[in-house]
Design brief:
189 residues; alpha+beta; Alpha-Beta Plaits
Length: 189
Amino acid sequence: MNYSQRFGIILLLVIGVILVWYTIFYSPRRLLLLDEEMQAEELQQQLSLLSGLTGTVEEIEQKITVLKSGFNQVTRGIRTKQEFNTGIQEISSLAGRYKVSINIINPSLENRSILNPELEKKWLGFEMQSHQITLQLTGKYPDIGRFMEAIGRLNTPFHIESVQIVSDPAVYPELNAFITLLGYSLVRG
């Protein structure tokens, strides 16, 4: 075999490999099959999701009842709006016992719903809201610390969200403190 015949055979082999490679990976028919396989896989996933949702109406209602009772247990410690206001008064009276003077009590006018208010009222019969209250107070460092510890022990619907203590030469040897409380209340629908 001479050089031109070898070259022709090698060229035919290379062209044949390219045609086979194109047919396997890039032919329109192959792309169509891949697309159909992807669609079938997607439908299979959707079907498996839907099969997980099956159940009788009684089973679903029973699950809802269990969830409601669990939620009621969780919200048992949350106060109504009136009890929330009583908690603010308890904190105010507590300040005098710990030699801390509250200069400003600034309740946030924004009541933030925890979940979706319409769904809460529909399923639970009430709406749960969070409220932010900022206290500006003056006192000595140990007294401020004991006051914050006492807030944590109170049976009020508040917890301390943040504390900022600032040294001010105008009130030395006392300090200014800014305490942000976060509370929760139930609004019956």
